[in-house]
Design a protein that fits this description.
Elements lengths: L2 H4 L3 E7 L11 H4 L4 H15 L1 E7 L3 H10 L5 E5 L3 H4 L1 H10 L3 E5 L21 E4 L4 H16 L1
Parallel strand pairs: 1-2, 1-3, 3-4, 4-5
The structure holds ligand CA2.
Ligand CA2 binds next to loops.
Length: 153
């Protein structure tokens, strides 16, 4: 039976880290010309299709991101582009590990084709999955992946 007939809608937080508010405005050769608002709009359409209540946020500070991950514990899943914090943000990693909900880490660029410091993720070991290098389409893949994980539980 479809989940919508039996349970409340799944709640997923899509959380974006520092500087991603500048998406589409600078460095289009690396990140493309799509803005964060464009991504939010695309995901809203997909969320409706998948039966998901979506919250889409961006914060620059690691503490603010930690606060939102802690709030997400009352929901079902997390899609996280931690931006540079993904490479060294242990407080954010601890929050994701403690959240007890599946998290899919997403990066727009192929971090493995870039500087060596981007080749490490401190989040990936505590995430359910990791997507990078698929451009902004990675967010749609990540939303589908986290929904799949939630339904498996
Ligand atoms: O590829 C990604 O999604 C990243 O998470 C983006 C981060 C970077 O530090 C990670 O290594 C990979 C950077 C976000 C900054 O985004 C900007 C967008 C437009 C202009 C300037 C920065």
């Amino acid at each position: 039976m479809p989940r919508s007939l039996t349970c409340p809608l799944m709640q997923v937080l899509v959380l974006n880290g520092p500087n991603l508010n500048m998406l589409g405005e600078r460095e289009p050769e690396v990140y493309g010309s799509t803005t964060l608002a464009d991504i939010a709009a695309r995901l809203a359409g997909l969320a409706a299709e998948l039966g998901v209540t979506l919250r889409f946020e961006q914060r620059n500070g690691e503490g603010e991101l930690v606060d939102l991950v802690q709030e997400a514990r009352s929901g079902d899943g997390l899609v996280l582009n931690p931006a540079a914090y993904g490479h060294y943000g242990y407080a954010l990693r601890d929050a994701v590990a403690a959240a007890g909900i599946p998290c899919i880490e997403v990066h727009i660029s192929n971090v493995y084709a870039r500087e060596a410091f981007r080749h490490t993720s401190v989040i990936a070991p505590v995430a359910a999955g990791y997507i990078c290098g698929c451009g902004v389409f990675g967010y749609e893949l990540a939303l589908r992946a986290v929904v799949h994980r939630i339904q498996e539980r």
